[in-house]
Design goal:
Two copies of one chain form a homodimer. Helix content of chain A is 54%, strand content 18%. The first copy, chain A, has 102 residues and is α+β, with helices and mostly antiparallel strands.
């Protein structure tokens, strides 16, 4: 039936919120700040932080903390591994789409 | 950034296992038995039952219990709602794939 491959994708991506975070980061050409993510996804700070920490621990995203005009700024980028895992996940889903739509 | 739409898909589908179950059911033209699902997805009985119950409670799948040759047989089908939700989910994913690949 050929959908078993979905079960072999990265487990962290099997969550709407984390998938959306990865989508925002992977489709941006520049680092995205915590506040931009907050606004783009309408999440609570705690919720967003928790998900970002999980993605960071698995090296799917990379964090960069710095001071800009003396204010702390936290930026996130999608790592190469993150992009590969995301594309793999999305492609497996797409394959399934083609099967179920026939 | 346009990936927020993933957050508006059915919450139950944002799980690899449930998504796979739905994929098997939606791509089959006939009802699929519990044992066929078990074999197709290599899950434990308990794990599969738990996910199926959740999908059933949300009317994404329909269950049919009957006796065949005096043996109990439990069949599952994807409901119309389930198919719509699945297609919606997969379409959002497809959009994301286009964005993240550019």
């Amino acid at each position: 039936m050929g959908v078993k491959s979905i079960l072999e994708t990265h487990p962290l991506l099997s969550d709407r919120v984390r998938l959306s975070i990865m989508g925002v980061l992977a489709s941006s050409e520049e680092p995205v700040s915590f506040n931009e993510l907050l606004e783009a996804l309408s999440l609570s700070k705690g919720n967003l932080s928790t998900h970002l920490k999980k993605l960071e621990d698995e090296k799917l995203v990379e964090v960069n903390k710095q001071f800009v005009d003396r204010k702390p700024r936290t930026d996130y980028v999608c790592t190469l591994k993150g992009r590969e895992e995301l594309n793999n996940y999305l492609e497996q889903i797409q394959k399934m789409l083609k099967q179920t739509k026939k």
